[in-house]
Every structure is written in C-alpha cells, then in structure tokens.
Write a structure and sequence with these properties.
Elements: E1 7-12, H1 15-26, E2 32-34, E3 37-42, E4 45-51, E5 63-65, H2 69-78, E6 82-91, E7 94-100, E8 106-111
Parallel strand pairs: 1-4, 5-8
Antiparallel strand pairs: 2-3, 3-4, 6-7, 7-8
Length: 121
C-alpha cells in the first residue's frame, strides 16, 4: 500500500551552493549531510539533494505547501529563484506557481486552503 509522499530529490551540480540555498528557502539546516546526499526535514517530508546530477525543468512537478503564495514567491525570488510559471488560481481558491531554482530544477508551491494535514500518514 502506498502511504504517500516521503521524499523529493533534486539533482544539483554544486551540492554546497544548493545546500546553502535550500537552507535559506526552507529556513532549516539539513538533518543528513554527506558528500553523496543532503537531506532536509520539511514538515515531516524529505527534500533531498543529489550531487553531480542533471537538473531539469521538464520532470515531475512536486508542490510544497504554503499559506501565502505571493509572499513566498517574493521571498524565494529574492533568494535567487526565477518565476517559471506565474501564480495561477486553479479553482476553489487553490493557487500554484512554478519557480526555477538557481540549479535548474522546478520548485513548485501550492496554497491550498482545502489541504487536510490530518490525512497525512
């Protein structure tokens, strides 16, 4: 039985720079920090950085939850991301945005007032 999302891994060419950038974006230090993998605990889920990988903007899209999408876009763009796809209301006041991190990966955000955290297992 699939229990749900556990880990999202981003390939990066510069592990040190990516670790510093993602530490700022998520305002947390990695809990696992090795030359072959860096892992962050983000709200009970894992964001992993894999060195020497080939980033891309055409792969799977993973959305990280936020409460104020406009403020988060401004904050993350100020840290070096660029807007890849503008904020969109996709219905029922759910908003999404696609950002490109400085390493060539998509970092997507979702502001979903209907998300039920109690359903996470």
């Amino acid at each position: 039985m699939i229990k749900g999302l556990r880990t999202v891994a981003y390939p990066v060419a510069d592990l040190t720079a990516a670790k510093a950038w993602y530490s700022k974006v998520f305002d947390t230090a990695p809990y696992f920090d090795q030359p072959f993998y860096v892992g962050f605990n983000i709200g009970g889920f894992e964001l992993g950085l894999i060195p020497d990988g080939k980033p891309g903007l055409a792969g799977s899209m993973v959305y990280w939850g936020v409460d104020d999408i406009t403020a988060e876009v401004a904050r993350i763009v100020a840290l070096g991301a660029t807007v890849h796809g503008a904020i969109q209301d996709v219905g029922e006041n759910i908003k999404t945005v696609e950002l490109a991190d400085p390493f060539g990966n998509l970092l997507c955000l979702i502001d979903n007032p209907r998300f039920d955290l109690a359903a996470v297992r």
